[in-house]
Amino acid sequence: MYTTQMDAARKGIVTKELKIVAQKENFDVKELQELVAKGQVIIPCNKLHTSINPNGIGDKLRTKINVNLGVSRDCKDMDVELKKVNEAVAMGAESIMDLSSYGDTRKFRKKLTTECEAIIGTVPIYDAVVYYHKPLKEITSEEWIDIVRMHGEDGVDFMTIHCGINKETAHRFKRNKRLTNIVSRGGSIIFAWMEMTGNENPFYERYDEILDICQKYDITMSLGDACRPGCLEDASDVSQLEELITLAELTKRAWEKDVQVMVEGPGHMPINQIEANMCIQKELCKGAPFYVLGPLVTDIAPGYDHITAAIGGAIAATHGASFLCYVTPAEHLRLPTLEDVKEGIIASRIAAHAADIGKGIPGAKEWDFQMSQARKNLDWETMFELGIDSDKARRYREMAQPEKEDTCSMCGNFCAVKNMNRILDGEIVSIFDE
Ligand code: SF4
């Protein structure tokens, strides 16, 4: 009856996934269907992902967040990674990108698409290098595409495909020197492959074949930005913008085959360039959802990059990005621990929520209203419950118990909230001798 969610929407079919998303977002089904038909909302859900609880991504919906995890040479234990996945979902991540690069990656991937309710994304290019177990140069064009097919069969909902960098982009990149070259892992792999073989990027050259695979399983194409800036110096440069133009063309071609698309974005970027970048992307890609990796607004804070990314993410989402990739404090330094993952998720969720308030997403501001009400009432239990990280809020209060239960140790008797409540209730406020 239909191939993809986009195809269904274009045919006026209301899928069960569309209904669920409309209900979750408090959105009119018909309106949502129109946005899916136009490509401005995506519902990534591979037909073979049996455990999915679908979510929509688009700038008129609540901002979603992605968490990158996966088995690697330095963290081989599948159970440890699965624990992180479950914690991430419990903490509100709508999407998990499985970036596994070691061992039986297929087993882990299949476990995710049969047990995990989050949207599952992958980067087939990483997996190809592990799967074929041979030098990069010897991987054939056919083999790159076979990996995409295999991920489709495994039930992956979206894939980052580095198809925006082609021979033309590569020439331009070499002509226009950058401070940090290509920092995208997938981008650097395919650039190296192109340089060593002299061949065109197979993900670009055989894009139509990839679209056919995506159409068959309803995989959302996440158009990878190989040339995303890796430092402020390289932001909004020739390579980044040239690639974005190619991605806009590829977006259009995907839509012609009813394939759902999102476009990946920066990267590192000065705060004053973010809004313009979002506007350019939205115009060029006709409102396709934008998936940003940060953007990190300064390069000088290793150990705190969950904060630099949250600042950029909040601004990006306010101006049109709809999907934020989390960044942990371990970024640029090491693999994240469970605690790092947690901090990254919270930071990213704060950014997403702040943007949702700015965009007027229904229900976003109400959460803050309730928290403020609890604060005014000095109702600590409700404050803990409403807090984005209830455990931390509770722990902090318990660490420094106030003398008077109805204040906190920050101001004690000088508690403005308590004193204002009392004076407005006609009580005497003394402070000094209380
Ligand atoms: S003591 Fe100070 S910080 Fe604590 S609740 Fe009262 S006004 Fe707020």
TrEMBL record:
Substrate binds at N68, M97, Y126, H162, S184, R185, G186, D225, A226, C227, R228, E264, Y291. InterPro entries: ThiC (IPR037509), ThiC/Bza_core_dom (IPR038521), ThiC/BzaA/B (IPR002817). Binds 1 [4Fe-4S] cluster per subunit. The cluster is coordinated with 3 cysteines and an exchangeable S-adenosyl-L-methionine. It holds the Pfam family ThiC_Rad_SAM. Pathway: Cofactor biosynthesis; thiamine diphosphate biosynthesis. Its EC number is 4.1.99.17. Catalyzes the synthesis of the hydroxymethylpyrimidine phosphate (HMP-P) moiety of thiamine from aminoimidazole ribotide (AIR) in a radical S-adenosyl-L-methionine (SAM)-dependent reaction. This is Phosphomethylpyrimidine synthase. The gene is thiC.
